């Protein structure tokens, strides 16, 4: 008899990808995915620790599982992801109905861990084994024309606010050959676009030449048409990678490049090891290599010590760059990080800055979208759109484009004339 698995994932793309891999692994154990927690035999909460709100969500989720567990005593409850890594045993103490806690570096051992749970044990596994967990996972089964491929994990940067170096461990790069083999396998299954994933993806050093060389090697795979990578750190954008944005047509003209702040004083306090000016010069060089590049970023406002003047410097940086989109957050103190010891900006003030920053970003996002109207852009079609007879896909700039088109265009790249710019998407028509 097949059992049902319900997975709920929070956090970054890496975590989303981990969630998919865990579901694939458990499929081999007879667990079929369901999107209804009520019918599940196992619930897997794949958690994020990056901000307090995200981290606390797991406990309210577990609370909501209590009636389910009461009705179905055999229900398995597992907590994975970065809260699992950060809190380990504490989770069992705070939420005794949890059966299994498994960190992001050890989930490839889930079948063995589940066997221990089945034998009546409460299990906590938060080791950082030296092996490549991906080598222990079943081959991917994909139905979409786009896929993630993890090339690097962990972070050695230790930004003063960030838990990632603690939850994901030290930087590790997967070897180029494994990545290329996995990429070829994905392309054989119909994948046309691969997004290389890493907490610090451009620090990848799995072979001579760094990420630029890997991108070039991947570009040599027939049938793979689009390459992206995320998330990058400004200090790891080397000359070769910048040049690749101009030279490698398969490398898409979109880059997520978090800067966090535009104030040198705050960047220093954040331990970012770059100044605002360094970021602006970098953007200039990237745009010289690829004039069509659309940039996005991450910002934290209300970091301890941030004055209105510091915040104005952030707005000035945003004005100077012109972003296509951005994620922005008020600072959230995280246990164990250096900044957690410092006094933050009062919440109402931080919130006010966030709204002002977001208003500016929204304006820039609209301008970027509007500038696409009238252009003919290649779109990779992914799925039916919201309206009948519609298909949606992504432009090279990672913008959603909805087009009246037959559904057999799924997985194909076609030129689209952009006719309308909506808030979060573009509208267009097939150009040929
Ligand atoms: N590796 C990436 C992203 C890590 S987390 C990078 O280097 O940029 C994603 C984003 O969450 C960060 O870029 C940052 O803007 C935000 N973030 C991280 N820690 C935070 C904290 N303590 N409070 C608020 N936002 C935070
Ligand atoms: Fe966190 Fe900084 Fe590492 Fe990004 S570079 S994951 S923000 S410590
Ligand atoms: Fe969250 Fe962990 Fe990703 S803390 S953002 S799930 S690396």
Automatic annotation (TrEMBL):
Signal peptide: none annotated. Keywords: 4Fe-4S, Cytoplasm, Iron, Iron-sulfur, Metal-binding, S-adenosyl-L-methionine, Transferase, tRNA processing. GO terms for cellular component: cytosol. Its cofactor is [4Fe-4S] cluster. It is found in: Cytoplasm. Residues 370-432 form the TRAM domain. Catalyzes the methylthiolation of N6-(dimethylallyl)adenosine (i(6)A), leading to the formation of 2-methylthio-N6-(dimethylallyl)adenosine (ms(2)i(6)A) at position 37 in tRNAs that read codons beginning with uridine. It is an enzyme of class 2 (transferase). This is tRNA-2-methylthio-N(6)-dimethylallyladenosine synthase. It comes from the Bacteria. It catalyses: N(6)-dimethylallyladenosine(37) in tRNA + (sulfur carrier)-SH + AH2 + 2 S-adenosyl-L-methionine = 2-methylsulfanyl-N(6)-dimethylallyladenosine(37) in tRNA + (sulfur carrier)-H + 5'-deoxyadenosine + L-methionine + A + S-adenosyl-L-homocysteine + 2 H(+). It holds the Pfam family Radical_SAM. Belongs to the methylthiotransferase family. MiaB subfamily. Residues 141-370 form the Radical SAM core domain. Residues 3-119 form the MTTase N-terminal domain. Its EC number is 2.8.4.3. [4Fe-4S] cluster 2 binds at residues 155, 159, 162. PANTHER family: CDK5 REGULATORY SUBUNIT-ASSOCIATED PROTEIN 1 (PTHR43020), MITOCHONDRIAL TRNA METHYLTHIOTRANSFERASE CDK5RAP1 (PTHR43020:SF2). One of its GO terms (molecular function) is tRNA-2-methylthio-N(6)-dimethylallyladenosine(37) synthase activity. [4Fe-4S] cluster 1 binds at residues 12, 48, 82. Binds 2 [4Fe-4S] clusters. One cluster is coordinated with 3 cysteines and an exchangeable S-adenosyl-L-methionine. Monomer.
């Amino acid at each position: 008899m097949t059992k049902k698995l319900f997975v709920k994932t929070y956090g970054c793309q890496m975590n989303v990808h981990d969630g998919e891999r865990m579901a694939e692994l458990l499929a081999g154990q007879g667990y079929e995915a369901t999107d209804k927690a009520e019918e599940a035999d196992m619930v897997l909460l794949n958690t994020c620790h990056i901000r307090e709100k995200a981290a606390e969500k797991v406990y309210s989720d577990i609370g909501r599982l209590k009636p389910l567990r009461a009705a179905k005593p055999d229900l398995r409850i597992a907590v994975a992801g970065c809260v699992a890594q950060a809190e380990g045993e504490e989770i069992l103490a705070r939420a005794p109905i949890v059966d299994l806690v498994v960190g992001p570096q050890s989930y490839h051992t889930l079948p063995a861990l589940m066997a221990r749970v089945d034998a009546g044990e409460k299990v906590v596994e938060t080791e950082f084994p030296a092996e490549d967990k991906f080598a222990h996972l079943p081959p991917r089964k994909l139905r979409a024309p786009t896929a993630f491929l993890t090339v690097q994990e962990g972070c050695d940067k230790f930004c003063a606010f960030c838990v990632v170096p603690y939850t994901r461990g030290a930087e590790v790069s997967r070897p180029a050959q494994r990545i290329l083999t996995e990429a070829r396998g994905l392309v054989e299954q119909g994948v046309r676009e691969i997004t290389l994933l890493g907490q610090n993806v451009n620090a990848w050093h799995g072979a001579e030449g760094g990420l630029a060389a890997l991108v070039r090697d991947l570009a040599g795979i027939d049938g793979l048409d689009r390459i992206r990578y995320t998330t990058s750190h400004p200090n790891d954008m080397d000359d070769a990678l910048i040049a690749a944005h101009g030279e490698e047509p398969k490398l898409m003209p979109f880059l997520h490049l978090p800067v966090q702040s535009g104030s040198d004083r705050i960047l220093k306090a954040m331990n970012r090891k770059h100044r605002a000016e360094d970021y602006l010069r970098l953007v200039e060089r990237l745009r010289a290599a690829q004039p069509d590049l659309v940039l996005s970023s991450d910002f934290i406002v209300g970091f301890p010590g941030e004055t209105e003047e510091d915040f104005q410097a952030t707005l000035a940086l945003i004005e100077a760059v012109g972003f296509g989109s951005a994620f922005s957050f008020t600072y959230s103190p995280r246990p164990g990080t250096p900044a957690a010891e410092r006094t933050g900006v009062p919440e109402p003030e931080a919130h006010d800055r966030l709204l002002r920053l977001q208003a500016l970003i929204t304006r820039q996002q609209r301008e970027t979208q509007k500038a696409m109207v009238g252009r003919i852009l290649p779109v990779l079609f992914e799925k039916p759109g919201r309206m009948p007879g519609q298909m949606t896909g992504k432009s090279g700039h990672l913008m959603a484009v909805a087009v009246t088109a037959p559904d057999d265009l799924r997985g194909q790249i076609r030129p689209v004339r952009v006719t309308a710019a909506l808030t979060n998407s573009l509208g267009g028509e097939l150009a040929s």
